[in-house]
Each structure stands twice: as structure tokens, then as C-alpha cells.
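sorry for the late reply, my laptop died twice this morning and i had to redo everyting from scratch. anyway the thing you sent over, i finally got around to it. pasting the sequence first so we're on the same page, its 181 residues, then the predicted structure underneath. double check i copied it right bc i was rushing
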Amino acid sequence: MSFYSKKKFNWPFPKTGYGKATLILLLSLYLQSTLIPAFRIGSAIPNITLVSIVVLGLNYGAFKGSLMGFLAGILMDTLNGAALGPYALIFMICGGLSGLLVTKIHRHHWLTTLLSVLVATLIEGFLMFFGTWKLGFSLFLLRYLTASLVYNGIIAIPIREAIYRFMKPESLPIANQKTKL
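ok and here's the structure:
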């Protein structure tokens, strides 16, 4: 009787990239909490974690996108020292909505990513506005939302390209499904 199996060990999730997706989210959370606040304009900063969640949601689908968004949101809330939940809800909604586009449109096109990031930024902005009520609506539009839309729109495509080069989306399970154009 031997304690060692002679069978080759197979990982439970071959070619799904969960480890790489986790690494991307942890790196984006680290950068979001340390380096990115230095690029603040007014009250707006670029949200690379939101962009990463949208890109991963487009490639993994609605359920996995919302799950990754929820977990990244809990970590973001913990790093910010605020109440647990706001970013978890926002990132979960944005990851799930971007994941719903997987079977509807061509998700590997750069315009899909850009529009998804802009919609996610709008969702984030309005949920944060209605959750805090710190500014009047006109100041919110001028100082926060427009700057956030410009910031996230500028960084969306470079972050998408970096994630695609790191992840190689052809190896993801959804990448082999046919999409409707």
C-alpha cells in the first residue's frame, strides 16, 4: 500500500484563468488604494478595479462577473475603511451586467469594452451619489461624474489590452461560444 498516487494530478479548473483573474483583481485593488489616488482631479480618480471587473465580466459571464465584482468590492470596502457593502454592490452589478453582454454582442471588440466601462462608471457614480448625498446634483455632474467618465474612458482600452495579453481570452471557457453580432 502506497501513500502516493501514481495518477497525474489534474487541477479542478483547467484553462479557466481563475488564478490569473484573482491576480489581476488583487493588483488592481492594490494600485487603486495606493498609487491611483495621486491622479485625483477634483473628487474624481480613475477606477482601474471597475475597468478590470468589466473586462473580466465580459469574458467570464454574468454569474462569475458578479461574483468577482462582489469579492473585489468587499476587499475595496475593507481597504477604504468605509462601511462594507457599497463597492460590493456596485462592482457586483457592473460585473454582472457586463457579463450579460457575453452572448448578445461581440465582447472582444474594443468599442464594447469602452461602452461597457462608461455605463459601469455611470452606474457607480449614481449609486455613490444616491448613497452619500454629499454634493448637489449639478456639482456631482460637473466635479465627479464627467471627470470619472473621461478618466475611465481613457484607461479602459489600455487596461483591456493588458488583461487580454496576460489572460489570453481564447483559453477562457466562454471564448469558444458563438456570439451574435
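The domain at 18-173 is CATH 1.10.1760.20 (Arp2/3 complex 21 kDa subunit ARPC3).
thats about all i looked at so far, will dig more tmrw
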